[in-house]
Recover the amino acids of this structure.
C-alpha cells in the first residue's frame, strides 16, 4: 500500500478540499521537457500526477492523448524511459505519482521486472487501461506486493457487483469515468457523473477521483461536490502541445494547474465526502 | 445426402468453446477498457442464447442458403494441378458467396444478433474492404445504420470496395492515425463503440478481439468447413491430405479448419503474409517473428518491439496486413494441431496470375497466399494426395494493385506446359 496516496486523500479529507489529479503523457514532447513539466505540475499544486506511458495503439484515448503518445514515441520514449523519468524527479515532487498505461508495454517488460523497477522509481500507484479486474489477478498481486496501489477504473456501465469487486481489489482510490467514450476535454461535466459517484460510494469506502472530459476550474469545483478529486488530462496535454516550443511552456503549465485549482476552497466540500 | 447435417447450426455451435474467461489455452481473454466490460459480457450472453435458439438458427440458415447462395462449391483445379505436377488441388469457392468473400457468413450472423439485441447502429472495421462490404450489405438488408472505419492507406488501395460500401448506404470513415491500415481501423471502431455502446453494435470481422468474438466469428464461419468436409467426401470419397488457408486475423482459416480439426490425419496449414522480407515492418508473419502480447482485446502472438509497441506490418494484401492473429490459431499452433507458414508478396502475385490464367478464377490477393503455398505443397506430394484450399474471396478489388505491378498483361506462366 502506498503511504503517499493514502496521505494525499487523508489530507484532502481533513482539509475538506477537492483534490486535483493531473495527467500528462510521459516523454511528451521529449524527456527533458517532460521532467520540467512534472515539476511544474507539482509546483502548481496537483495532489496526484498521472504519468501516461506512450503506446502505439492507445484505443481508449481521444485524439489529444493519441497525438501526445505519438510525439513521445517519435522522441524515442518507451516504458523504461518513463520509469527513469519518474525516478529522476520523484524526490522533488510532493504529489503522489500514478503510472497510467496500456497492458502490453508492461507485460512485455514482464510483471516482476516492471513492479520492481516502478516501485524503486517511486511510483505510488499503477492503473492499466485495458486490464479489467477479471484479467488483473497476478498483476494486481505483484503491484500490491511491491508496495504500490493497484488502481481500477469504474464506468457508468460497470455493474454494482463489479463496483464492489473493484472496491475490494483496488487500493488508493477508484477512478470514476464520468462518461462513455474515450479521453478528451468537453464543455460540460457529464450529467451522469454524480450518479456514478453515488453508486461507487455505496459499493466501496475508497476515495473516488472522477475524470474524462474535465478542463476548467468550474468542472473541478463541480466534481468536488460529490467526489474526492477531479482528473484533468487532455486539456492539460493539449495546452502543452500548443506552447511546447515556446519559452513559456513551463510557466504556462504551472499557471494552468493553479488556475484549475482556483475555485477549490478548503472546508467547502459537500456532505458526500469519503468515509 | 449430407447437406442438411452440414448446415445444421446446432451441430457446429458450442462444440469447442474456450474456457469461461474466453481463453483458448494461454490465448484470448478480454483485455478491454472498463466501459466495454459489461457490453462485451452482454454480447456473450446474447450470443450464447441466440446460438441455442431455433428461430435464430433458421433465420441465419435461410439467409445463407437463399441470399448468400450456400453451399458454395468445391471445385477441382485440375488444369493448375496438372501444371504443378503433384497432388490434386481442390478449391472451396467462398469467392462465389454473395459479396465475393467468406466475410458475409459472419456479417449476417452478427447483424441478426444485433437486431435481436435491439441495436440499431452497426460499426465495423475493414482492411481489404471485404468485411466492410459484407457488413454494409447485411445492414442494407436488415435496415441498420452502418459506419465502417478503414485505414487511409487501405482506402486508397481498395478503392472499389469503398465505392461499394457507399453505394450500400454505409458511411466510410477514413482513419489517418498510426499505420493507416487494419489495426488503426480497429482502434477507431473501438473508440466509436466505447462512446456509443448503448445503441451501437460492434461487428468485428475476424476471430480477434475480446471474448466472445473469436469464438462467435469462428462459429459463424464454420459453415465453410462443414460443407467442405461433406463435399470433398462426396467428390473423392476421402478426406484431404491437407487443408490450406490464408491467415490475417484468421477467420476463413478457422472456418474451414473447423470441419477437419477432429480428423487428426488432415494437416491444417495457415499461410501468413511474408511481405517482401521477414524483417521488422516488412511482413505480417506473426508466427515467424511474433511474441506473446496483448493487442485490441486479446492475448495472442503479436509483432511488437522490445518495449511492447506494435510494429508496423506490410503485405501486398490489405486483409493480411495485421500485427496480431486470432488467439485460437496460437492455441492450435501450440498444440501442434495446425501449422503456420508464410509466402512473400511475389509468391502470392505469382499464384494469383497462375490461377487466373489456368483456371479462369481471379482470386483475392489474400487467398492467393494460400494458393501460393498450396502450389509448393502440392508439388511435393503425389497424385493420390488431395490439397483443399479455401479460396476465401474474389480478386476484382485487387486488379488495380496487380496492374500497377505490371502483372496484368504478362504472358501466362509456363503456357502449354500444363498438359504434361
Amino acid at each position: 500500500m502506498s503511504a503517499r496516496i493514502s496521505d494525499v486523500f487523508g489530507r484532502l479529507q481533513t482539509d475538506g478540499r477537492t483534490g486535483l489529479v493531473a495527467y500528462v503523457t510521459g516523454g511528451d514532447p521529449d524527456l527533458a521537457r517532460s521532467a520540467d513539466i512534472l515539476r511544474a505540475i507539482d509546483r502548481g499544486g496537483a495532489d496526484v500526477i498521472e504519468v501516461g506511458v506512450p503506446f502505439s495503439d492507445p484505443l481508449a484515448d481521444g485524439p489529444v492523448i493519441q497525438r501526445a503518445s505519438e510525439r513521445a514515441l517519435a522522441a524515442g520514449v518507451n516504458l523504461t524511459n518513463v520509469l527513469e523519468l519518474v525516478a529522476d524527479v520523484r524526490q522533488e515532487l510532493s504529489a503522489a505519482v500514478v503510472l497510467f498505461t496500456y497492458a502490453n508495454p508492461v507485460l512485455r517488460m514482464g510483471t516482476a521486472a516492471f513492479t520492481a523497477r516502478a516501485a524503486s522509481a517511486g511510483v505510488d500507484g499503477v492503473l492499466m487501461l485495458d486490464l479489467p479486474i477479471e484479467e488483473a489477478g497476478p498483476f494486481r498481486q505483484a503491484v500490491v506486493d511491491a508496495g504500490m496501489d493497484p488502481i481500477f477504473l469504474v464506468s457508468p456501465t460497470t455493474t454494482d457487483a463489479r463496483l464492489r469487486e473493484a472496491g475490494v481489489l483496488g487500493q488508493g482510490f477508484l477512478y470514476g469515468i464520468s462518461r462513455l467514450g474515450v479521453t478528451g476535454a468537453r464543455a460540460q461535466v457529464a450529467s451522469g457523473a454524480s450518479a456514478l459517484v453515488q453508486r461507487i460510494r455505496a459499493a466501496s469506502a475508497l476515495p473516488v477521483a472522477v475524470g474524462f472530459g474535465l478542463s476548467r476550474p468550474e468542472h473541478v469545483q463541480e466534481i468536488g461536490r460529490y467526489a474526492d478529486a477531479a482528473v484533468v488530462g487532455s486539456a492539460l496535454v493539449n495546452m502543452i502541445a500548443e506552447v511546447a516550443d515556446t519559452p513559456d511552456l513551463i510557466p504556462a503549465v504551472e499557471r494552468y494547474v493553479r488556475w484549475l485549482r482556483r475555485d477549490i476552497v478548503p472546508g467547502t466540500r459537500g456532505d458526500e465526502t469519503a468515509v | 445426402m449430407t447437406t442438411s447435417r452440414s448446415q445444421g447450426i446446432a451441430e457446429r455451435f458450442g462444440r469447442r468453446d474456450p474456457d469461461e474467461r474466453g481463453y483458448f489455452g494461454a490465448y484470448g481473454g478480454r483485455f478491454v477498457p472498463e466501459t466495454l466490460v459489461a457490453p462485451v459480457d452482454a454480447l456473450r450472453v446474447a450470443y450464447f442464447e441466440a446460438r441455442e435458439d431455433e428461430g435464430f438458427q433458421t433465420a441465419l440458415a435461410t439467409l445463407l442458403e437463399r441470399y448468400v447462395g450456400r453451399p458454395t462449391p468445391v471445385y477441382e483445379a485440375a488444369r493448375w494441378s496438372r501444371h504443378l505436377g503433384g497432388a490434386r488441388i481442390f478449391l472451396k469457392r467462398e469467392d462465389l458467396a454473395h459479396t465475393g468473400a467468406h466475410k458475409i457468413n459472419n456479417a449476417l450472423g452478427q447483424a441478426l444478433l444485433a437486431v435481436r439485441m435491439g441495436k440499431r447502429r452497426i460499426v465495423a472495421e475493414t482492411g481489404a474492404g471485404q468485411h466492410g462490404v459484407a457488413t454494409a450489405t447485411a445492414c442494407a438488408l436488415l435496415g441498420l445504420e452502418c459506419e465502417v472505419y478503414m485505414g487511409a492507406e487501405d482506402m486508397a488501395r481498395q478503392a472499389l470496395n469503398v465505392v461499394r460500401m457507399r453505394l450500400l448506404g454505409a458511411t466510410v470513415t477514413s482513419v489517418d492515425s498510426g499505420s493507416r491500415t487494419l489495426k488503426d481501423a480497429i482502434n477507431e471502431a473501438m473508440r466509436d463503440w466505447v462512446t456509443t455502446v448503448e445503441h451501437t453494435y460492434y461487428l468485428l470481422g475476424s476471430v480477434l478481439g475480446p471474448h466472445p468474438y473469436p469464438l462467435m466469428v469462428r462459429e459463424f464461419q464454420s459453415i465453410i468447413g462443414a460443407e467442405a468436409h461433406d463435399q470433398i467426401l462426396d467428390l473423392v470419397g476421402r478426406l484431404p491430405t491437407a487443408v490450406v488457408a490464408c491467415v490475417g486475423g484468421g477467420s476463413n482459416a478457422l472456418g474451414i479448419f473447423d470441419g477437419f480439426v477432429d480428423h487428426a490425419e488432415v494437416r491444417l496449414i495457415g499461410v501468413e503474409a511474408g511481405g517482401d522480407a521477414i524483417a521488422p515492418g516488412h511482413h505480417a508473419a506473426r508466427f515467424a517473428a511474433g511474441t506473446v502480447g496483448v493487442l485490441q482485446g486479446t492475448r495472442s502472438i503479436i509483432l511488437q518491439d522490445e518495449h511492447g509497441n506494435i510494429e508496423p506490418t506490410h503485405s501486398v494484401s490489405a486483409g493480411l496486413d495485421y500485427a496480431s492473429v486470432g488467439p485460437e490459431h496460437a492455441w492450435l499452433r501450440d498444440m501442434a494441431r495446425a501449422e503456420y507458414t508464410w509466402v512473400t508478396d511475389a509468391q502470392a502475385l505469382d499464384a494469383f496470375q497462375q490461377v487466373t490464367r489456368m483456371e479462369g478464377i481471379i482470386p483475392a490477393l489474400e487467398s492467393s497466399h494460400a494458393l501460393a503455398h498450396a502450389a509448393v505443397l502440392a508439388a511435393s506430394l503425389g497424385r493420390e494426395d488431395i490439397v483443399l484450399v479455401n479460396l476465401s474471396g474474389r480478386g476484382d478489388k485487387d486488379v488495380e494493385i496487380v496492374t500497377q505491378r505490371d502483372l496484368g498483361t504478362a504472358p501466362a506462366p509456363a503456357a502449354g506446359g500444363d498438359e504434361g
In short: Chain A has twelve helices and nine strands. The CA atoms of residues 64 and 234 of chain A lie 6 Å apart. The interface with chain B takes residues 55-60, 62, 66, 70, 73, 78-80, 103-109, 129-132, 134-135, 152-159, 162, 177, 180-182 of chain A (CB under 8 Å). The first strand of chain A starts at residue 19 and ends at 25.
